[in-house]
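Duplicate of #3305? Posting structure anyway:
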């Protein structure tokens, strides 16, 4: 799972991608596995899920992006 997390994090850091493009580029066909990886990424980075244009395919859909923040700025920091 760590390798998939690294790949997906690199794909979505500061660039929005739809779930289909994330799956295709990361080589993951299971929606459940992708959701699990996105949940793990959200524990470390601010994860955005919005309706917008995918940077890869150009379609308007729900896209995911992550932004780099310092740990103390993360909404789950406590």
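Output from current build:
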């Amino acid at each position: 799972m760590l390798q998939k997390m690294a790949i997906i994090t690199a794909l979505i850091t500061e660039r929005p991608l739809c779930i289909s493009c994330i799956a295709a580029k990361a080589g993951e066909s299971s929606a459940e596995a992708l959701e699990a990886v996105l949940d793990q990424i959200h524990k470390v980075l601010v994860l955005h899920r919005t309706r917008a244009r995918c940077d890869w395919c150009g379609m308007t859909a729900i896209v995911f992006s992550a932004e780099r923040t310092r740990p103390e700025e993360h909404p789950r920091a406590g």
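Confirmed duplicate; merging threads. The chain has a mean pLDDT of 87. The longest helix spans residues 31-42.
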